[in-house]
Amino acid sequence: MKTRDRIVHAALELFNENGERAMTTNHIAAHLEISPGNLYYHFRNKQEIVREIFALYSKELIERFTPLQGQYESLTLLKHYLDSMFNLMWKYRFFYSNLPEILQRDEELHVEYIASQEKLHVNLINIMQNFVDMELLDVEKEDLETLVTSLHMVYSGWLAYQSAMSLKTEITEQVIYKGMLQMISLVKPCTTPQGYEQLQLLEDGILALHV
């Protein structure tokens, strides 16, 4: 792995474990056993590393939430999107936990974040429309926007909410799975009988294994 990539992956690991604010470029360099000068050859400061991590996150986010083409079983699709939510929240949990502060101090990153979230929002509406077409959801087209916005709010703000509710909150896999359950609870009232049954299967699986 190239040194630049090693720096990014090490920073992501340290930010997730210790919080982004607590980590400096010196911490990252020491973790990799390289000199600070070597790190600065690739990144001028920590904020450039944060931007690089965000670029990876944004690319993966859009890839995972692009509507899938072809014939898939409905339960397979539901599980795919729930797994994608969990994997992204866990992999980039430092970002979700402290999102407002990270964006407020970097205007360029904030602009990039808004652009990626607008693209995500369009994809999510298309994904939900697919579930309507598959007769898993019973939602009027004009109401999809409200449902997607509610889901988007929970998804993007869940870890920050958990952190705000207690100074001692530790972000664990169980905390993220509870966020998945919260999103399922938002969708359940909009399901058809078939959709309700399949969401219940996913919910039971999460409860049995993770919460």
UniProtKB/TrEMBL annotation:
<dbReference type="Pfam" id="PF00440">
    <property type="entry name" value="TetR_N"/>
</dbReference>
<feature type="DNA-binding region" description="H-T-H motif">
    <location>
        <begin position="24"/>
        <end position="43"/>
    </location>
</feature>
<dbReference type="Pfam" id="PF13972">
    <property type="entry name" value="TetR"/>
</dbReference>
<keyword id="KW-0238">DNA-binding</keyword>
<dbReference type="GO" id="GO:0003677">
    <property type="term" value="F:DNA binding"/>
</dbReference>
<feature type="domain" description="HTH tetR-type">
    <location>
        <begin position="1"/>
        <end position="61"/>
    </location>
</feature>
<protein>
    <submittedName>
        <fullName>TetR family transcriptional regulator</fullName>
    </submittedName>
</protein>
<dbReference type="InterPro" id="IPR009057">
    <property type="entry name" value="Homeodomain-like_sf"/>
</dbReference>
<dbReference type="InterPro" id="IPR001647">
    <property type="entry name" value="HTH_TetR"/>
</dbReference>
<dbReference type="InterPro" id="IPR050624">
    <property type="entry name" value="HTH-type_Tx_Regulator"/>
</dbReference>
<dbReference type="InterPro" id="IPR025722">
    <property type="entry name" value="TetR"/>
</dbReference>
